[in-house]
Amino acid sequence: MESFRVLTADGHSLAARCFKPHGEPPKRAVIIACALGVPQSFYTRYATWLTQQGVVAYTFDWRGMGESAPDNLRQYRAKLIDWALQDAPAMMQLVAQRHPALPISWFGHSMGGILFGAMPQHPQIDHVVTLGSGSGYVTHLAKPLRYVIGAFWHVIVPLSVARHGYYAGSRIKAVGDLPRGIVAQWKRWCASPKFVLSEGEHIRQAYAGVKLPITAVLFRDDTMASPAGIRAVHEAYTGTKVDYVFLRPKDVGAASVGHFNFFHGRTGPQGWRHSLPWLGMA
Predict the structure, then answer these.
(1) N or C end of the chain, less CB within 10 A?
(2) Domains plus CATH for the chain?
(3) Positive or negative CA dihedral for 172, 176, 178, 182?
(4) How far apart are CA 161 and CA 180, in angstroms?
(5) pLDDT higher than threshold 90 for residue 24
(6) Is the pLDDT assigned to residue 282 strictly greater than 80?
(7) What gap in Å lies between CA 236 and CA 118, rounded to an integer?
(8) Is the pTM of the predicted complex or chain greater than 0.85?
């Protein structure tokens, strides 16, 4: 594994990692984009397994979280849309420059998939996979989360931000530490049935302009995203085809998967092999 830094066009430094296959040259590059508040280290097992399939895999931490966060988040300024407009293009360009002859797959987990439509498109990316990438609007959430989300937004988040100057999610084991601007924009999106499209007409047009086919994956035991929420996000891709893949844990040989555990070791190679066709490795 190689650890390095990536500089964005607006001057932010992102922590990234590269996982290279041994022996034969790679057949494809895969960029794994983290869920909100989930560090890139969470995806290490899966990225390592991908190298055994002839893939060179990349992970990274979005600005303001994980190893890309400054020592003190209190004064740090960032917006969620910066992840799409600045961080993602920086990673796409770096991977393309390192592997100019390889096709690239984007595998976005939760927010890492939600934001794909807002990202500038890169010609080497030919497969897009989103996992658990659903709308955060209350009626689009899975049950029972939709019944308690009000307390999160109107009590827990404001109190945490007021006390710490940022959302200190790691202290209460709810998401992770995030800059106040990231959480504020996330909250605004979740307050609207349009979700990310509430950011403005330019974002709606960006999603509509995506031409790549997308595989949208959801596990039926996901306690955060729901089928309705997945469709609410992906219906914004009016210029392409979305293949919806709704799976039960037993379909991948797991007892439970939920929102996070596809990448966990307990799912393992037996379950991970299902992702190869999604990534263009069939």
Answers:
(1) C
(2) 2-278 (3.40.50.1820)
(3) negative
(4) 7
(5) no
(6) no
(7) 11
(8) yes
Supply φ then ψ for residue 52, to 5 degrees: -75, -10
List pLDDT tens digits, range 249-281: 999 999 999 999 999 988 999 999 999 999 999
Q: Give the closest residue to 108 by CA, choosing from 86, 90, 83.
A: 83
Assess whether pLDDT exceeds 90 at residue 228.
yes
Helix-helix angle 157-164:180-190, to 10 degrees: 160
CA nearest to 123, candidates 35, 211, 14: 211
- Rounded CA-CA distance 98/75 in Å is 34
Tell me, what amino acid is at 82?
A: D
Backbone angles phi and psi of 240, in degrees to 5: -150, 180
13, 45 Cβ separation under 8 angstroms: no
CB atoms within 10 A of CB 83: 26
**Each residue's pLDDT tens digit, 131-179:** 999 999 999 999 999 999 999 999 999 999 999 999 998 887 778 899 9
Q: Are 272 and 53 in contact (CB under 8 A)?
A: no
Rounded to whole angstroms, the Cα distance separating 178 from 273 reads 32
Q: Describe the chain by its helix, strand, coil percentages, rounded to 5.
A: 40, 20, 40
- Give the C-alpha separation, 60 to 169, whole Å: 20
